[in-house]
Amino acid sequence: MSLILGALLACAAGVAGTLLCPDDKAGRSRLPLLAALLAGGLAWHAPARAGEALQGPAQVIDGGTLRVGARQVSLSGIVAPDADQTCSDAQDRTYACGRDAARALADHIGGAAVACEARGGTDGAVVALCRVGDEDLGAWMVARGLAVPDRGAAPAYAAAADRAWGRRLGLWSGVFQDPAERRGRRAAAGLRDAG
Q1: Cα 181–Cα 92–Cα 180 angle in degrees, nearest 5
Q2: Helices H, strands E: what count in the chain?
Q3: Does residue 146 or residue 155 have the better pLDDT?
């Protein structure tokens, strides 16, 4: 997608070069037209803003992250195990809970179109409430014990997490490291290594 965008921007720059030359007959500049073209192109490629809708087929990256079109989208309000995270089941056997969460989400979405409403994000990452039909994918993940509610977000998924815990579903069937704590430790280690 970036290659296509680059080609389009290069073509636009070529057209812009001809537009910047003043019209010799009228003696006026075509700069306002160039500015309008560039603003439109930048708005089209700008990061998603809160409330912006992203729709289409989705590729599951991990249990809490999708790729919708060219955008990487984190599911709002949840924290899922990293793709490489392992957990222990009730018999203390290790299993790939991160991979299981991603697979369950991919199977649940199937070939359906996903509709995401951006809630924010930083550094080009989009955080969004994503749905298949009327079903909130974050709520679905938490209700099956495949993710935990994000403590920093509103407690919208707390009741679903409590039910999953009570039924010993997914992560709650054994022992796991809280995905949020795991990410926090990784981030802290990265800062120490960089410093």
Answers
A1: 10
A2: 6, 10
A3: 146
Tally Cβ neighbours within 10 Å of residue 107.
9
Three-state secondary structure call for residue 146: coil
Q: What is the CATH number of the domain that holds 60?
A: 2.40.50.90
Domain of residue 85, residue span: 53-175
Q: 116 with 126: CB under 8 angstroms?
A: yes
Q: Which residue has the tokens 């309008």?
A: 36
DSSP per position, 4-16: HHHHHHHHHHHHH
- Are 139 and 167 members of one domain? yes
pLDDT at 169: 96
- Does the pTM exceed 0.85? no
Beta carbons of 144 and 104 less than 8 angstroms apart: yes
Q: What is the pLDDT of residues 36-78, one digit of tens each?
A: 433 444 334 444 555 567 899 999 999 999 999 989 999 999 9
Residue 181 CB neighbours (<10 A): 11
pLDDT tens, residue by residue, 88-133 = 999 999 999 999 999 999 999 999 999 999 988 766 679 999 999 9
In angstroms, the first-to-last Cα distance of the chain is 35
Number of domains in the chain: 2
Angle at which helices 31-45 and 2-20 cross, to 10°: 170
